[in-house]
């Protein structure tokens, strides 16, 4: 059974639909890139998958025993976070918030795992630093480490390279690839960068005016056909 | 100097003054704990808004002739806090406007009621003034109010410690917390309720116009110097308690109004921390 199956989704804000009749499924180990124009509903789709936005109609089915507190999420940065006084370790540890449930404190094993995730992101030297003093790329790695605390199965990334320079962007992509290949974590990523999507993703979902869901190869063929058709 | 110390000593003999000191310290502690979260969530003004609501409720209670208005005021304020904070950070502009609206609305209605229904009562202007600036009410606390204050403070501190990790996660990133399975609305509700409780308590100390100072100054001072959430929270609690105690002692010794003296001490400490922050940053560079 697929990890996530979406049937006939209709989604949007306040009853107004942005996307209608969306069908796709994500299997364990997939790397799905969601691409599309600004305002085409990529973020809305992701927020709906996470349960932050109500679904207008349709069905989202979680398979493989995936629970709500086993999903990792890397949101876009908010204004509040930019001057937030917190250490890297505190932020990464807060990834366990959902798993801790009613337990008011984090377990020693969770602290250890948080440290391990910090090391995995190559930011071990920053663990006691203040979040607001880090560069954009370092901040994204902190938030990715936090997302890893929440999950070992599925991670959703909302434009993880937005605003990063080319070197940090490369670093971010290779870390995400490593998580997908080595740790077998399923990745769903929103991206503006179609060339990167075609390089790293196993599947591509295009929302907006034209609609596409399929493997990277199929998307590639479609694009090539389009180009030769235009000529 | 001796004279001042003697005077302090003489005043502290009064149970009323000792009660006021206890209540003042507890209120300062509670408001500073919540202050960090409120400042970071861009809700600095909620203290102001809610205290005006409490002022309006007090006026209504006075007009209705309730002798013990605390439970009524508390209930009204809690409901307003829940309504204001329920939406969370996602509808920030709406929240902002809502705070302003409720705040001035309640203030106007409260003053109007007091004026219309108590025109001949001894001293409307004086009553209003003491509610707004909390001048004397801390020295007129009844025994029940002191106990209510102690119990509520204990509850606030306990809730804060038990939910510390959740409060951190929610303050830093509500969406992430919600997406990974934390019941955001429940915790927002809890925060709203204790914020309201603290504000109703704090009105006795500094009055409804100066409450925001008690909420934001310690948090802002601590943020100048400290870099982790835990150290900011602890430091802001210490600053707040020390300032409140110092302010109250000064006000007893020199006869200045309690609320504004505490706030002036807070402002002074803020500038000290601001300078320290500049210095430590300068050293790093």
Give the key terms.
heterodimer; A: 231 residues; alpha/beta; six-stranded mixed β-sheet; three-stranded antiparallel β-sheet; 9 helices; 39% helix; B: 285 residues; mainly alpha; ABC transporter involved in vitamin B12 uptake, BtuC; 13 helices; globular
Provide a short characterization of the protein structure:
The complex is a heterodimer of chains A (231) and B (285). Chain A is α/β, with parallel strands linked by helices and 231 residues long.
Protein topology:
The complex is a heterodimer of chains A (231) and B (285).
Chain A: E1 4-13, E2 16-26, E3 31-35, H1 42-49, E4 57-62, E5 71-74, H2 79-82, H3 88-93, H4 97-100, H5 108-120, H6 136-150, E6 154-158, H7 166-182, E7 186-190, H8 194-200, E8 203-206, E9 212-215, H9 216-230
Chain B: H1 2-12, H2 15-40, H3 46-64, H4 70-85, H5 92-117, H6 124-133, H7 143-162, H8 164-172, H9 174-179, H10 184-206, H11 211-225, H12 229-254, H13 258-284
Highest CATH level, the class of chain B: Mainly Alpha
Distance between the termini of chain A: 42 Å
What sequence of helices (H) and strands (E) makes up the elements of chain A?
EEEHEEHHHHHEHEHEEH
Q: What string gives the helices and strands of chain B in order?
A: HHHHHHHHHHHHH
Mean pLDDT of chain B: 82
CATH architecture of chain B: Orthogonal Bundle
Count of individual beta strands of chain B: 0
- Low-pLDDT stretches of chain B are none
Query: In total, how many beta strands of chain A?
Result: 9
> Approximately how much helix is present in the residues of chain A?
25-40%
Note the main sheet of chain A.
6 strands, mixed
**Amount of beta strand of chain A:** 15-25%
Main sheet record of chain B: none
Assembly level: heterodimer
Radius of gyration of chain A over alpha carbons? 18 Å
Shape of chain A: globular
Task: Look at the structure and name the CATH superfamily of chain B.
Answer: ABC transporter involved in vitamin B12 uptake, BtuC
Total helices of chain B: the number is 13
The helix count of chain A comes to 9
């Amino acid at each position: 059974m697929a990890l996530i199956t979406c049937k006939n989704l209709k989604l949007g804000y306040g009853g107004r639909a942005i996307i209608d009749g969306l069908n796709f499924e994500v299997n364990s180990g997939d790397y799905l890139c969601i691409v599309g124009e600004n305002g085409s509903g990529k973020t809305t789709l992701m927020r709906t998958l996470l349960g932050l936005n109500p679904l207008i109609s349709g069905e989202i089915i979680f398979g493989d025993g995936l629970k709500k507190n086993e999903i990792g999420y890397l949101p876009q940065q908010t204004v509040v976070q930019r001057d937030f006084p917190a250490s890297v370790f505190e932020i990464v540890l807060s990834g366990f918030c959902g798993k801790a449930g009613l337990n008011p404190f984090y377990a020693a094993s969770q602290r250890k795992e948080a440290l391990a995730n910090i090391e995995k992101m190559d930011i071990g030297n920053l663990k006691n630093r203040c979040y607001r003093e880090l560069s954009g790329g370092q901040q994204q790695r902190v938030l990715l480490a936090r997302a890893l605390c929440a999950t070992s199965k599925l991670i959703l990334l909302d434009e993880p390279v937005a605003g990063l320079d080319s070197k940090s962007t490369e670093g971010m992509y290779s870390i995400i690839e490593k998580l997908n290949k080595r740790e077998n974590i399923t990745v769903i990523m929103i991206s503006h960068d179609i060339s990167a999507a075609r390089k790293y993703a196993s599947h591509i979902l295009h929302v907006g005016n034209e609609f596409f869901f399929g493997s990277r190869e199929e998307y590639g063929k479609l694009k090539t056909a389009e180009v030769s058709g235009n000529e | 100097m001796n004279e001042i110390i003697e005077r302090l000593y003489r005043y502290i003999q009064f149970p009323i003054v000792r009660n006021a000191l206890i209540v003042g310290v507890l209120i300062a502690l509670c408001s500073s704990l919540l202050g960090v979260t409120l400042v970071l969530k861009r809700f600095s003004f909620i203290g102001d808004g809610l205290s005006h609501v409490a002022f309006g409720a007090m006026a209504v209670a006075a007009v209705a002739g309730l002798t013990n208005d605390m439970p009524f005021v508390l209930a009204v304020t809690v409901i307003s806090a829940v309504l204001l904070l329920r939406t969370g950070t996602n509808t920030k502009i709406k929240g902002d406007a809502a705070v302003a609206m409720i705040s001035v609305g309640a203030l106007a209605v409260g003053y109007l009621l007091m004026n219309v229904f108590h025109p001949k009562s001894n001293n409307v202007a004086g009553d209003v003034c003491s509610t707004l600036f909390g001048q004397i009410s801390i020295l007129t606390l009844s025994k029940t109010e002191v106990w209510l204050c102690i119990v509520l403070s204990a509850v606030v501190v306990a809730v804060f410690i038990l939910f510390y990790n959740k409060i951190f996660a929610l303050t830093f990133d509500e969406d992430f917390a919600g997406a990974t399975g934390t019941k955001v609305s429940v915790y927002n509700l809890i925060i709203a309720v204790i914020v309201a409780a603290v504000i109703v308590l704090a009105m006795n100390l500094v009055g409804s116009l100066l409450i925001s100072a008690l909420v934001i100054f310690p948090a802002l001072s601590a943020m100048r110097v400290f870099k982790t959430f835990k150290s900011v929270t602890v430091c802001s609690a210490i600053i707040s308690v020390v300032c409140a105690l110092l302010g109250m002692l000064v006000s007893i010794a020199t006869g200045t109004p309690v609320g504004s003296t505490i706030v002036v001490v807070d402002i002074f400490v803020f500038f000290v921390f601001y300078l320290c922050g500049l210095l430590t940053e300068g050293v790093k560079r």
